[in-house]
Amino acid sequence: MSDQVLKNLPRPTPETEAYWQGCKDHKLLIQSCGDCGTFQFYPRSICTNCMSGNLNWVSASGRATIISYTVMHRSVSKAYCIDGPQVLAIVCLEEGPQMMSHVVECDEEKLSIGMAVEVTFEDWTDDITMPVFRPIKE
Length: 138
Fold this sequence. Notes:
By secondary structure, this protein is mainly beta. Helix content is about 5%, strand content about 35%. The chain has a five-stranded antiparallel beta sheet with strand order 6-5-4-7-8. It is globular and about 45 Å long. The relative contact order is 0.21.
């Protein structure tokens, strides 16, 4: 974990605190509207569908599909050089929301739009854990 400390770390807010605690516990949490049932990500204070404030945190399945990706060969800073080429992807969670994350444990040549992936977690510090995705092994 000590190599990760120089990375840009997220700062939890009242709206995102439960999400980051879930990540720390290695659980992917998303919001669900108690009024209309819509799932949403990123965390917000109101439902993006019906504007209700009746939001609940639920565990997502962790399964997703890659809908877009890029391979970054040049790191944004020295803190990220140790990771080598990185795959940045937009994934569509099984529940419907999309999120941006990294894809790990996958050869660049095997990446594809529509690839099934599952969440795993990287502990960057004692307080911050990042959700990342890896191909589902069938």
